Amino acid sequence: MTHWIIAPVVLPAMLAPFIVLAARYHIGIQRVFSLAGVVALIAIAASLFVTVSDGTILLYQLGDWAAPFGIVLVGDRLSVLMVLLTAVLALFVLLYAIGSGWDDRGWHFHALFQFQLMGIMGAFLTGDLFNLFVFFEVMLIASYGLMIHAGGNDRLRAGVQYVLYNLLASTLFLFALGSLYAETGTLNMADLAVRADMIGADATVGIRVAAVLLLLVFAVKAALVPLHFWLPSSYAEAPGPVAALFAIMTKVGAYAMIRVYTLIFPPDLETTAGLYDVWLLPAALITVALGMIGILAAKKLDRLVAFAVIGSMGMVMVAISLTTPEGIAAALYYIVHSTLAGAALFLIVDLVKSNRASLTLTALPPVAGAALTSALFFAAAIAMTGLPPLSGFLGKLLILDAARDHTMNVTIWAVILCSSLIGIVGFSRAGSVVFWKAKSVAVDEQAEPTTSSNPLAYAAVGGLLALLVAHSVLGGYAQSFMTATAAQLFEPEPYISIVLETEGKLSAPDASEDH
Amino acid sequence: MEVLVASAVGILTAAGMYLVMRLRTFPVIMGISLLTYAVNVFLFASGRLTVGSAPILRDGVDVYADPVPQALVLTAIVISFGMTAVVVMISLGAYLGTNDDGVDDPPETDQEGEA
């Protein structure tokens, strides 16, 4: 049993109190430790990634208790992929936060950042549904602090909405867990998979209610229409780097949905049949359309990007609700793409904000340094709307291809293609108004940009875009890994048997004298 | 007893939902508190209702109470308590800053940004 799999949870959990207690007044030390921690996270995640990429499933029994009784962490391809994605995203977001000075505008940015990472990593790695709830809460309570970082009335107000909405979602999560436990008597995911399969056709009411409640909770996290209302104002009002980190939080909802609805309630399970075709797919299509129309309708750049995130989550949900291995593989490719693209866009919006009077989509006098910012915006917008040559195009192509044999293929193609066009128009309009229509008011040509003495911030955005380019250029490798991941998800027997049959101290009483 | 517990959960949930719809921070927070009480009782009931039975193994006992929901409820209570404290602080800050305790977006933000 390797202990490395718990390191992505333990490392930030140890680092955060250290930063609060020992480096409270020293932003320099905080930065060094936070960066070092994230770099170490990437190294750990990368080595785990290499380990699981051949199909190995890593199991970690906390306290050495065997599975249905103790909590387990499980690392398969999907979990470790998400962990690696989070760690890489965190590095660039942190570089940006340091470069732009956001981390110095309020208290405890780095500690909250590490706690947030701990929650996200734990949510990806855990193999127990109640533990997933706990890690959701860890992630959320840190995000509340980050969301209102640096204060301000608008931000606090958006923060209240965000916190209240998520508290309601957490309550719903508990209701879902209570119903699941009442029906099956377990909350371990592998054990749930076995027991959900054993429920007879005559007693499915309770488990169906539980499955729907759980889907609703994950839909809130993933900002699926009509549960998306928390996202636009909270992402728009959050500090730029925080909004960029939040790009992975919606993916936690998507991850949980993929995990639960391939493992516990697989598509061929009688009890939950119809959940995807009848409910999830239409909601996902409306999410795509609403996100893209929101891009066109938004009057401020930050809201525009928030709606782009909603639209891209809709794309992911469409791919998930196809419930085929091809669909899940396409969803995973698109998840990686949309996390990086969404984060890059939020950071670019923050760059625009730092030397522009407001983010409204009206022509304002040009500012120094706008050329580089607009080039970055151009590249990120191409990626986000799904134009060639960047990975958004490949991701949408994969999703369209996966939907080819679906009964609703015409509807899916029509919605995705039409709404993509609307999104392209929206982004073109925004980019033209903000960057091109800037009136040629006399500006001192040699003047240094007021706050753009932050090459590190630009480097962070450039790094994210470089990752997007790599995700496109190495699309073949990425796609074959995603296909292998989806194949692993659709054959859950190895996962279940490793989790349930590995012996802990409870199932080996003879070994008790050793302890 | 089932009727009593079920109606308690139902009434708490209904009252909580009604308060959450009030769109002012104080009633909404009260509503969320009621909802968390409801969900705590609900979690208890998910382990089946028994009176006076032992939660852990001992000799000469046939009927056991399920100990897992009790542990779950304990966790849920702690988390909801902490979350309520956080939301009270944030909404107090928002109220003192804007002199308005509404939960929805103020009208000018609606005109600026909402689709």
- Compressed to H and E, one letter per element, the order of chain A equals HHEEHHHHHHHHHHHHHHHHH
Main-sheet strand order of chain A equals 1-2
The computed structural class of chain B is mainly alpha
Strand content of chain A: under 5%
> What's the domain count of chain A?
1
- Quote the average pLDDT of chain A: 90
The helical percent of chain A reads over 70%
Order of helices and strands of chain B: HHHH
Distance between the termini of chain B: 49 Å
Number of helices of chain B: 4
Instruction: Please tell me what the overall shape of chain A is.
Output: globular
Number of strands of chain A: 2
Secondary-structure blueprint of this entry?
The complex is a heterodimer of chains A (515) and B (115).
Chain A: H1 7-22, H2 27-52, E1 58-61, E2 72-75, H3 77-100, H4 109-125, H5 129-147, H6 153-184, H7 189-198, H8 205-222, H9 231-237, H10 240-263, H11 275-297, H12 301-321, H13 325-354, H14 370-385, H15 391-402, H16 409-436, H17 455-473, H18 475-489, H19 493-501
Antiparallel strand pairs in A: 1-2
Helix pairs in contact in A: 1-2, 1-4, 2-3, 2-4, 3-4, 3-10, 3-13, 3-17, 4-5, 5-6, 6-8, 6-9, 7-19, 8-10, 9-10, 9-12, 10-12, 10-13, 11-12, 11-16, 12-13, 12-16, 13-14, 13-15, 13-17, 13-18, 14-16, 14-17
Chain B: H1 2-20, H2 25-45, H3 67-98, H4 107-113
Helix pairs in contact in B: 1-2, 2-3
Can you characterise this structure?
The complex is a heterodimer of chains A (515) and B (115). With 515 residues, chain A is an all-alpha fold. Helix content of chain A is 71%, strand content 2%. In chain A, α4 (109-125) runs antiparallel to α5, α7 packs across α19 and α8 runs antiparallel to α10 (240-263). Chain A is globular. Chain B contains four helices and no strands. Chain A binds chain B through residues 130, 134, 137, 140-141, 144, 148, 151, 153-154, 156-157, 159-161, 163-164, 167-168, 170-171, 174-175, 177-179, 181-182, 185, 187, 232-233, 236, 290, 293-294, 297-300, 303, 307, 360, and chain B through 20, 25, 28-29, 32, 35-36, 39, 42-43, 45-48, 66, 68-69, 72, 75-76, 79-80, 82-84, 86-87, 90-91, 93-94, 97-98, 103-106, 109, 112-115.
